[in-house]
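Worked problem 6 (solution included).
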Amino acid sequence: MAPKLGILAGSGGLPLKLIETCRATGRPFFVLAFDGSCDPASVADAPHRFIRLGAGGEGLRILRENGVEELVMAGGVRRPSLAGLRPDWRALRFFMKIGLRALADFGDDALFRAIIAELESEGFRVTGADRILGDLLAPLGPLGRIAPDAAAERDIAKGLEAARAHGARDLGQAVIVREGQVLGVEGEAGTDALVRSCAASGGVLVKTAKPGQERRADLPAIGPSTVAAAAEAGLRGIAVEAGATLVLDREVAVEAADRAGIFVVGVKPE
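Solution. The predicted structure is:
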């Protein structure tokens, strides 16, 4: 039997998808959900506990009490200030190790790498959501009935270049491009906020993994909410990195894209 999985649950649909997969495969699991990020409805009927983000010692204790051996990071967590984090002794010890300014100075990938190393030093194995939900990775090519035209293909090519450059600086995973011009890049507020900022632009959303990204954390993901935001903003379509982006509730997302007349396509960076 697979080892008991601890789902470190933030925002979005990924925690629920992991819960559903564990149940379907009979894998034992426990959810450690973060206050202010995880939707309580998504874990209501699953074995779980809520903790605040800075309660590192309590979180480790809860995971051990529930027999967790393997961990997976699932969903987004808004990064607080150190004061807002209110770290307990265990979290503070972690920040003393990597530097107290790391919370502000590190990009997401660098911070996640440090967190994973710390969790593994405590005896847990950390796996990636794609290892459990591999069938949700975007394939190459159009996912629905609509494919990008030649103009959109040119914007996708520009977007891949821009997204990889943005990701190499550990700043975000997504950009919006129209007619060869980068209209916006993803920041701390996330992809949906980027889409809203470029409403009525007629652009294309391009989302990729960061070069050399730690795949066990913050793997790119889209879902029905991304499609709805893109359609409402008047975007022409969405391009994601094939084999490196999770498409949550793919059937629902693709049907919504087809109805809205926008494309969703898996692409490969050069």
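Discussion: DSSP finds twelve helices and 13 strands in the chain.
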